[in-house]
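Thread: Modeling a multi-component assembly for a lab meeting

Hi all, long-time lurker, first post. My supervisor asked me to bring a structural picture of a complex we are working on to next week's group meeting, and I have zero experience with this. I have the sequence lines for every component (534 residues in total). Could someone generate the structure of the whole assembly? Inputs are pasted exactly as I received them:
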Amino acid sequence: MPFERILVAIDGSEASDRAFAKALELADLTNAQLTALAIEGPLPAYAATVGEVDEVKREKDLFFNALALRARQQAEQAGIELAVELRAGHAAEVISDFAAGGGFDLVVLGHRGHFLRDHLLGSTADRVAEHAPCPVMIVR
Amino acid sequence: MSDIAIAALVAGTILVASTISVEVGLSVALIELLLGVIVGNAFHVDVPTWLAFLGSFAGIVLTFQAGAEVDVPQFKREWKASLSIGLVSFFAPFAVVGTVCYYALDWNHRQAEIGGLALSTTSLAVVYAVLVETGLNRELVGKRLMSATFVTDIATVAGLTVLFVKPTLWVIPFVLVSIVLIAGLPLASPWFFERYGDRVIEPEIKLVFASLFLLMWLGGRANSQAVLPAFVLGLVMSNHYVKHRKEQERMRVVAFAFLTPFFFLKGGMSVSASALWANLGILSLLFVAKMVPKFGGVYPLARKYTAPHATFTTLLMSTGLTFGTITSLYGLNAGIIDRTKFSLLIAVVVLSAIVPTAIAQRFFQPRPEAEHEQPGERGVAPMPPAPAREGVGS
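Re: Modeling a multi-component assembly
Sure thing. I ran the full set together rather than chain by chain. Output:
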């Protein structure tokens, strides 16, 4: 069996939707366990008020709860059992750490493409590909 | 530059600050401060009286909100462990910075007190963001940190109110009205908010603003500051806001949209970039004078109460932003410190928000025992449109 544990990163963008669809196909083909990892980006750094942090956190929670529900519904329709995990932090670091800690043998993620940022800093996909402990599939 | 031209410039800058904040993930207040420095120095804009007035009121609103955002039940549970950390976190830098300002920098007594107060603060919001982001706010180390931060904050606002008071007979009505509001508003709120609240004309926000303006006026007549009663008023209202989240949210909307930007922008516009450049040595000295006593005082206590996260605790207790800015602006507005001293204090305050936080997060951040809950466990909201977020799809 080529893959037994697949990790797919989701964030609600079109790129991650494409990656999630591809991960569902792969899980179906290989009968692998599929886990979706949703990463809440950082909260406003160096905030001046608790209110600013609270409101952003609340918005993120609402968004990611809905995202998790949608992922579960899509997986159910595809007949795939899906575990959903939520983590906070910087995407590339969290995905790599989670993949290493969970013993995954494939990471699937989307590539959105930001010309300036990708060239200056490197994309999240690039950084995961560099640091993940297993093969990485980047879906365009 | 005419008033309306300055208003247009300020409004545009506030808008730009909001968009930058969303794009780069930094707090809007910090961006407003930094853009204020750029605008103030590039356009050589003198802060007009209307902006100074709005900024002063916004400072009091920020203080009220800081009180209202304290988790009082949590503080009651953790106050014994947090009291010593919080008090040392205030008094150690206050004493050291004050001494450095007075003896080494030749500031006068009142200027040294402003310097000591501005650099003794700990930023509840900066600490809170780090803890929430990592889930540590649900663990003992996070709860004790938050409670200790509250102690430091209340020591700061008490110092600002008490140290600079020049008593007149007006102190009597100031104190009496403060007590009446602090005792009465939580009692009157349920009825008032039930009767008049939840309307687009927002009588409940107007009630709070009227109370704060009254405190500001009486505080001014008493040659004192309204920060302490404003903070305590927020504190006694915190339980009400816990039960009425929508009201708190609307209050935040009004404050963040129309008031606090003026406060931080005004703070930034009052900073002299050339004075900072000419005094980099003093800037470094003041930064060290804040950090060293924070470490010397807080670290031993943190080893006792928040071990094994003592360094993380100490670094976060060394942060500062809002109350440091409020104190510095008070000193500037009251004519106690000049623009150069104000610029130095604000620069150190901003540095203290960034440097210890970044070091704590990068090198000393504990892994929470209980990781974040799964999304489905917190209830599910209607699906929002898929936004273009910085994240895994990038």
